[in-house]
Amino acid sequence: MIRIGSAIFNADHGHLADEMQRLEDAGVDFVHFDVFDGYFVPDFGFPARTIATLRQHSRLPFEVHLAANDPLRFVPALVDAGADLIFLPAETTPLKYEAIFAVREQGCNVGLWLTLGTPLSVLEPVLPLVDAVLLLARVTGESTRGASFNPLVLDRVRRVRAWIDTGRYAVDLQVAGGLNANSMSQAVAAGARSLPVGSALYRTQDMGRVVAELRQVCEAALKRET
Questions:
Q1: Which helix (H) or strand (E) holds 51?
Q2: Using N-to-C axis directions, what is the helix angle for 16-26 and 207-225, rounded to 10°?
Q3: Over the Cα atoms of the chain, what is R_g?
Q4: Domain map of the chain by residue range?
C-alpha cells in the first residue's frame, strides 16, 4: 500500500485551516508537520499550539518530523496537540531505545528519521522497535537553497527495506525531500511506502488531480517491483 502525505510547511500559512480541508478533499493519507527548534536546522517549524488548533480541522493522521537538539523536551506538548506519530532525529537522540519507549509511554507512535549523511548502522539495533523510518533525500533546510531530490538516498532505502523485509518488521518506510512524480517512482521502486510531498502539491489549484496522478505513478512502480 502506498501512502501519499502532505508536508504542510509548504502550504499557505495564512489559511492553514482551509488548507487542511483542501488536503482531505484531495485524498491525501496523512499530514506531515515539520517541527524545528531553530538550532538543529536554521529554521523554525510549527509550534504545538498550531498543530493542536489544526487537529480540530482534520481527521487525517498527523505525523511530526521533529528536528531538535533536545527532542524529548517537545514530545509531551506534541502528543497533547494530537500527533499520531513522532519522528525523533537519530542524530540527537543518543539513548534511542529509551527514547522510543518514552514516546510510547505517552500513547504515541514513534519513528526515527535520518539525514543523508547519517550512517544507517545507528538504525539497525532499534529497527524492530519503531513504527516508521523517515529517510531524507536532502538535508533539512536545503530547499531554501534550491536543492532537489538526491538519488543517494535510493541505496539507503534499499538497505532499510531489506532489513524490514528480512525481519518481517511492521515498519513504515518513508522518504521525504524534493519529491515529484519521477523521484517518487524511484523511491517506491527502492522500497519506500509513504511519501510526504511538499511544494509539488501546493503549486496547483487542482490538488486532487495531482494526488491521484502521483498515486497512480507510485502504484505502478510498486507493481513493477513486485
A1: helix 48-55
A2: 50
A3: 16
A4: 3-225
Rounded Cα–Cα distance for residues 21 and 40 (Å): 31
State the Cα torsion 19-23-26-28 to the nearest 10°: 160
Locus of grid cell 501512502? 3
Is the pLDDT confidence value at 86 over 90? yes
The angle at the Cα of 14, spanning 41 to 35, to the nearest 5 degrees, equals 25
- Is the domain spanning 3-225 CATH 3.20.20.70? The answer is yes
Residue 39 pLDDT class (50, 70, 90 cuts)? confident
Q: Which residue has the cell 488548533?
A: 53
Q: Which is nearest to 110 in space by CA: 137, 92, 128?
A: 128
- Which one-letter amino acid corresponds to residue 63? E
SS3 32: strand
Question: How many residues comprise the chain?
Answer: 226
Question: What's the pTM value of the predicted model, to 2 decimals?
Answer: 0.94
Q: Which helix (H) or strand (E) holds 98?
A: helix 96-104
Q: Which residue has the cell 533525500?
A: 137
Question: CB of 84 within 8 A of CB of 109?
Answer: yes
The C-alpha atoms of residue 70 and residue 140 are separated, in whole angstroms, by 17
Whether the CB-CB separation of 160 and 135 falls below 8 Å is answered with yes
pLDDT value of position 142: 53
